[in-house]
Design goal:
This protein has 462 residues and is an alpha/beta fold. Helix content is 32%, strand content 24%. The strands form five sheets. Strands 1, 2, 3, 4, 5, 6 and 17 form a seven-stranded mixed sheet that branches. Strands 8-15-9-10-11 form a five-stranded parallel sheet. The structure holds flavin-adenine dinucleotide (FAD) and 1,4-dihydronicotinamide adenine dinucleotide (NAI).
Length: 462
């Protein structure tokens, strides 16, 4: 039996970051992981593989739609799907091996297998029980199921199956117009599938700024995705190699059907805590299965902490990472901190969509007085040159103090641009602070400055 200061359960972005930070802070650390490779959902079947396929399919889109305009003539590339999947797998491998290297470098023991917590202070992996002064649960999440829909990961798939389909489907129905549905829907649409997205609500990407939702859906429609909004999926019938999606329209209860070669179920994810033994330990969970923690990520059982997708809050890799670092610091006797008001979210379609802080809707709900500074990418020289002038930057600032409260970007590199606003918000900056900062020309980031100028006396290029 080995004895550790900390055993982390799960090696996703929450778990591996927590383990590395614990080791850096001088704590003897191990990490239990049941998968064959480290990195969790994110590196194996989430963020990284989906971004590889988004990148490859975007390059194809550029070649088909924009190369000739720039004088780059010749045959567009054809898709070698086997090679594209191999590129995706190679990207996964490089990243998961990178975590293995970091574990070795930081002298973190990888306990290979599924961990259970027989009692506080102990973690059992396989036949071995280890002692742990502290345990961090970072067991992540899994796709949630939908009544009447049986997943086989072949014809009816979650994101995991959608990342390794044997061939590109002619017709794909995506259930859910959230982040997964729109990212993977975009991939297959660009690769030639006829994609129809069936969404329960009347808008895409719940929780995003309303104006962004409308514009985003419009742009995706222009790219060829079809949408059935306000539709409740009742069931999916599996035929030999195809499927039929049965749904009712919420406005009149009328019944409809859609044929598909592949159905992607992307209706949200739920915490994965199977086999940990939480009930026997008396660890409290919410009615949605999320592990309850205090402000220091400790559960109601002393010495057991939880972070990432397994607890409340947005299911994002960087949120899990920040909690991992903070929980490690708390265990090491330091002041771990996460600013939940400044967690960016990004959708890696083209154009990208990025958000941080309040939306117009949330500010209205709170009855707060705010002003809007908006700038269209159409007025940005770099965007025009790069065929990327769809979209805008919108900054929300306090009407009285000019303090930035949120930002919403739809456009090129939105996922990178948003961090300028994140840093500004961390420093409690006013829109004027961003407006007075010199931005290099020609860059997309000038659009952020122009939106900040729009909160004051007005942008220059609009
Ligand atoms: P996970 O990454 O889920 O890792 C948990 C790990 O714990 C798993 O490897 C699991 O095997 C292991 N485990 C569980 N129980 C045990 C046990 N008892 N013993 C041992 N090991 C155990 N987020 C972003 O921010 N950006 C993106 O672009 C993005 N893209 C995504 C794309 C897809 C298709 C999906 C599905 C998700 C995406 N996400 C993205 C979400 C992101 O993957 C998660 O928020 C993130 O992985 C959560 O990290 P985590 O450490 O909490 O858990
Ligand atoms: P989601 O919560 O983003 O979207 C689910 C969508 O499905 C919602 O629009 C919802 O209204 C709809 N829906 C639910 N039930 C339905 C039904 N019966 N019929 C039709 N529509 C229905 O969940 P998603 O896309 O599965 O993603 C899960 C998590 O993974 C998210 O929390 C997200 O944060 C994370 N993720 C993050 C990414 C990123 O940061 N770029 C990429 C992919 C996933």
């Amino acid at each position: 039996m080995a004895s550790y200061d900390v055993i982390v359960i799960g090696s996703g972005p929450g778990g591996y970051v927590a383990a590395i930070r614990c080791a850096q802070l001088g704590l003897k650390t191990a990490c239990a992981e049941g998968r064959e490779t480290l990195g969790g959902t994110c590196l194996n079947v989430g963020c990284i593989p989906s971004k590889a396929l988004l990148h490859a399919s975007h390059q194809l889109h550029e070649a088909e739609h924009n190369f000739a305009k720039m004088g780059l003539k010749g045959k567009s590339p054809s898709v070698d799907w086997t090679q594209m999947l191999a590129y995706k797998d190679d990207t996964i491998g490089q990243n998961t091996k990178g975590i293995e290297f970091l574990f070795k470098k930081n002298k973190i023991d990888w306990l290979k297998g599924w961990g259970t917590i027989p009692e506080a202070g102990k973690v059992k992996v396989g036949e071995e029980t280890h002692e742990a002064r502290n345990i961090i649960i970072a067991s992540g999440s899994e796709a949630s199921s939908l009544p009447g829909v049986e997943i086989d990961e072949k014809t009816v798939v979650t994101s995991t199956g959608a990342l390794e389909l044997p061939k590109i489907p002619k017709k794909m129905v995506v259930i859910g117009a959230g982040v997964i549905g729109l990212e993977l829907g975009s991939v297959y649409s660009r690769l030639g599938s006829q994609v129809t997205v069936v969404e329960f609500l009347d808008h895409v990407t719940p929780g995003m700024d309303g104006e962004v939702q409308k514009n985003f859906q419009k742009l995706l429609k222009k790219q060829g995705l079809d949408f059935v909004m306000g539709a409740a999926v009742q069931s999916v019938d599996k035929l030999k190699t195809k499927a039929k999606v049965n749904y009712t329209l919420r406005k009149d209860d009328s019944e409809h059907q859609l044929d598909a070669d592949v159905v992607l179920v992307a209706t949200g994810r739920k915490p994965y805590t199977d086999g940990l033994g939480l009930e026997a330990l008396g660890v409290e969970t919410t009615d949605r299965g999320q592990i309850k923690t205090d402000a220091h990520w400790q559960t109601n059982v002393e010495g057991i902490y939880a972070i990432g997708d397994a607890i409340e809050g947005p299911m994002l890799a960087h949120k899990a990472e920040d909690e991992g670092m903070a929980a490690a610091e708390v265990i090491a006797g330091k002041a771990g901190h996460v600013n939940y008001g400044v967690i960016p979210s990004v959708i890696y379609t083209h154009p990208e969509v990025a958000a941080v802080g309040e939306t117009e809707e949330s500010l209205k709900e709170q009855g707060r007085a705010y002003k809007v500074g908006k700038f269209m990418f159409m007025g940005n020289g770099r965007a025009k040159a790069n065929f990327a002038s769809d979209g805008f930057v919108k900054i929300l600032a306090d009407k009285e103090t000019d303090r930035i409260l949120g930002a919403h970007i739809i456009g090129p590199m939105a996922g990178d641009l948003v961090h300028e606003i994140c840093v500004a918000m961390e420093f409690g900056a006013a829109a004027e602070d961003v407006a007075l900062t010199c931005h290099a020309h020609p860059t997309y980031s000038e659009a952020v400055r122009e939106a900040a100028l729009a909160c004051g006396d007005g942008p220059i290029h609009a």
